[in-house]
Amino acid sequence: MQSFLKLLRWTVGILFIFSGLIKANDPLGLSYKMQEFFDVLGLSFFSDYTLIFSIGMNVLEIVAGIALIIKFPYKQTLWLLLGLIVFFTFLTGYALFSGKIKTCGCFGDCIPLTPKTSFIKDIVLFVSIVILLFNHKKVKSKIKPWLGFFILTVASFGVVYGQYYVQNHLPIIDCLPYKVGNDINEKMKTPPGAVPDSVSIQMEFIKEGKSYYFDANHFPENFDASYVYKNRREVVVRKGNGLKAAIDDFALETLHKVDSTKEILGQTIPYVLVFTGKVTAEVPWKNLLAQLHQKHTLIYIVTADKSGALQLLSKENILIGDITMIKTAARVWPTIFVMNGSVIMQKQSYLDFLKK
What we know:
- The protein is an alpha/beta fold.
- The protein has 3 domains: 2-169, no CATH class; 198-238, no CATH class; 247-355, 3-Layer(aba) Sandwich (Glutaredoxin).
- It has 12 helices and 8 strands.
- It has helices spanning 2-24, 27-40, 50-70, 74-98, 115-134, 145-169, 184-187, 261-265, 285-295, 306-312, 323-329, 350-355; strands at 198-207, 210-215, 228-238, 271-276, 299-303, 317-320, 335-340, 343-349.
- The strands form 2 sheets. A 5-stranded mixed sheet has the order 6-5-4-7-8, sandwiched between helices.
- The longest helix is centred in the N-terminal third of the chain and has 25 residues, at 74-98.
- The model has no long low-confidence stretch (mean pLDDT 92).
C-alpha cells in the first residue's frame, strides 16, 4: 500500500508541476484562455484581471505539486489540490458538455487537449487525490519545517520571476504557429482530410411580438410584410472533424483597407514585420525604428491600433491586422519578425533587440 501511495503521490505531484510549468512558459496564453471562459460564462468584468489570475494559478499549481512530493504540509496540500481539481473539472466539464470552448488550455498551447481528454484527465486526478486524502495518515513527512518553507518560498519566487521574464522576452519554448522556421503560407493551408462544419444561415423575423427563424429554402407559405426582419445567425447543422489550418486569421490590410497579405508574404527580399496590438508612447519607438532602419530596408508596423499608429508612426509603413492574430503572433508588444518571403527567420522582443 505504501508503494502504491508513493507512486500515486509522485504522479499527481509531477502532473501538477508539469501543467503549471507549461502554462508559466506563456502566462499570457492562459490569460487569453481565461478571457474566453469569462466571456462565455457572462463574467467579462473579470477579463481585466486574467493575467494576475494566470500568474497566480501557475504558481499555485507548481508549488502545490512540489509540496505534495516533499510531503509538506501534506494534508493541507491535498485539500488545496482537491479544491483545484474540482474547479478544473467544472471548467473542462463545461467546455465538453456546452461545446462553447474547443480547448481548455490545461497544458497551454504546447500540448492542446480536447475537452473530452481534459475532462477524463481531471476525473482521474480527482479520484487519485481523494484516495491520497483518505489515506493521508499513512504517509509521514520527514522534512524539517524550515526546509519545507524554504523550498516552497524559493519555488514561488522562481515561478513568479520566470513568468515576469517571458512577458518581456517571449516564451522560452515557442509552441505557437508563428515560431521561428515556420512558413506562414504553409500554416494557412487546410490540412488534408479536413471536414469543415456544415452551417445554415437562419434569418430572424418578428411577427406580432414573436420571433421566427427561417433559412432561405424554408419560408412559410403565408410569409408577407407582417414579418419584420431583425437579425441573422449561423447554425451548425453538422459538425466537422475539427481539422483546420494552424493559422486561419492572418491578414494584412493597408490603411485604406486594401488586402496586401499576398503581396507582403510574396516579397523576394528580406523584410521586417513589427507586431504590436497597441501603439503607445511607453515604447521607445524612435530608438527602436532607428536601429531597425540601420539593419533592414523594408519595415512594416502591423497593428490593430490605427489611430495610435497614425499619431506616433505616421512616417512608417503601417499595416492593420486582427487583434487576435497579433496576440498569437506576438506575446510581447512590439515583437520583431525578420521574414524571408513567408518564412519566419528571426523573432524577438523589442527589449532583446534594443540590447544588441
